[in-house]
Automatic annotation (TrEMBL):
It is found in: Cell inner membrane. GO terms for cellular component: plasma membrane. GO terms for molecular function: acyltransferase activity. The chain crosses the membrane at residues 12-40. This is Lysophospholipid acyltransferase family protein. Pfam families: Lip_A_acyltrans.
């Protein structure tokens, strides 16, 4: 009861904070960056290890520079997520622009459904919200419920405010079946690690053996719906361009794991191009078939004089 009460107080305070204009919130983000990076070192051990293992070709000072840019972006992302509570349709459409949306609309107007493949890159939350405003088909983002029911309900309310129909991961097939007679977009975030029990396919991703979720490929092959990757480009603080890139238009004709390899390699190229905007604080490589390869280099990074 106490935890639920504290959660409600926290949500109230965050909702009030959301009413502030973004230029004020970004000043708070600057201060928040100092706190999470220099004072508390929020998940810095995880971030350091992820970056060092992902980029063996980069020098340690180069990795440190990426780390700092990531934490500056993470602080802004936190503020932008809070702003979801009060952001208007006009403001969101000004800050999230879609490129090649007509390629998707051609299917939807023809009463055909498509699948979106996304990742935790850039402001994926704003992008997911904006899909409901910019495409004609019903939008069904697949999500993993939060452990806190109070905060989960708060996020669901924000994520659903512009016509999105949130679907928990375990309800995906049921939702597809229930909406099979209308043109829809189902959006999958396919870059998080599957559970240890569901780690059935491994490949090399960012220089490490990585278990990859197979849900998108299974649905694509079962329904033969074309797959578009949402390539999020960070333009400047608070502004994003989303390129709808067709990566597989005939899934039923692909070999096993071909779609999974396509979107995994596509994301890898995106991250290598601009690495600071991926969610490095996520424990992506929590489960591995063998020990990590660069523990010595991580120790060198910890003792680096920067």
């Amino acid at each position: 009861m106490i935890n639920k009460g504290l959660s409600r107080v926290g949500i109230f305070l965050l909702s009030m904070l959301s009413l502030l204009p973004l230029f004020v919130l970004y000043r708070l983000a600057d201060a928040f960056y100092v706190v999470i990076f220099y004072v508390f070192g929020y998940r810095r051990k995880v971030v350091k290890e992820n970056l060092v293992n992902a980029f063996p070709e980069k020098t340690l000072p180069e990795i440190y520079a990426i780390e700092k840019r990531f934490y500056k972006f993470l602080a802004s992302l936190f503020i932008e997520v809070i702003k979801m509570k009060s952001i208007s349709k006009k403001e969101l459409n000004k800050r999230v622009k879609f490129k090649n949306a007509d390629l998707v609309e051609a299917y939807l107007k023809n009463n055909e459904s498509v699948l979106f493949c996304s990742s935790h890159y850039g402001n994926y939350e704003w992008v997911c919200m904006a899909i409901g405003l910019n495409f004609s088909g019903g939008h069904f983002p697949i999500y993993k419920p939060l452990s806190s029911e109070t905060f989960d309900n708060w996020f669901l309310e924000m994520r659903s405010k512009f016509g999105n129909n949130m679907v928990s991961m375990r309800q995906t097939l049921r939702a597809i079946q229930a909406n099979k007679h209308q043109p829809t977009i189902f959006t999958f975030g396919s870059d998080q690690a599957p559970s240890k029990e569901e780690s059935n396919y491994w490949t090399t991703f960012l220089n490490q053996e990585s278990a990859i979720q197979l849900g998108l490929e299974k649905i694509a092959k079962k329904t033969n719906r074309p797959v578009f990757y949402l390539k999020i480009n960070y333009l400047k603080r608070g502004y994003y361009e989303v390129d709808c890139v067709p990566i597989c238009l005939n899934p039923s004709e692909t070999a096993e794991f071909e779609i999974t390899n396509m979107h995994t390699l596509f994301l890898e190229d995106i991250i290598k191009e601009a690495p600071a905007y991926w969610l490095w604080s996520h424990r992506r490589w929590k489960y591995q078939p063998e020990p990590k390869i660069s523990s010595t280099r991580v120790k060198d990074y910890d003792t680096m004089d920067v």
